[in-house]
Amino acid sequence: MLWRKIALLVLGVIMLCSLAACGNKVDSKAVREYADEITEKMLLAYNEDNYEQYIAHTDSQFKAVVSEDKMKEGNEMIRGKIGDYVPGSKKFKDAVKTSQKEQKYLVVRYNAKFTDESDDVLVTMIFDDNEAHEVGGIFFNSPKLREQ
């Protein structure tokens, strides 16, 4: 079961990266005005298993799929490999616009430090491309997460 989740995580990241590669560049400064703060809050909530803070800026689809138990289970699996997020360590990498089935998204990527991963962890945030800028997904990728 754990291997299946890891495989799905890796597949999801690959798909997101391919979406990002096909996307349109955006005004990074404008995106960062909301994305940096929301991402930091979600990563801190990840450290604390704080479900209410974790989902505070997510869209209804995310909330429907990610229950408190699922969040804690996923966090436990990820923390077991890469540890906790080092607060304030994320560095903006890039942002692109993309769409899927008539839904528009902003894919925003950061390199971040985690306590048990010597390399950077790629944190990919998926934001709804609308005025609400709600999070539709958060994904982690690193050498330790890719290990079998």
UniProtKB/TrEMBL annotation:
Stretches assigned to the DUF3887 domain: 41-131
Signal peptide: 1-20
Membrane-spanning residues: none
InterPro entries the UniProt entry points to: DUF3887 (IPR024981)
Keywords: Signal
Gene3D superfamilies recorded: 3.10.450.590
Pfam family name, one: DUF3887
Record-given protein name: DUF3887 domain-containing protein
Organism: Syntrophomonas wolfei subsp. wolfei (strain DSM 2245B / Goettingen)
Organism placement in taxonomy: Bacteria, Bacillati, Bacillota, Clostridia, Eubacteriales
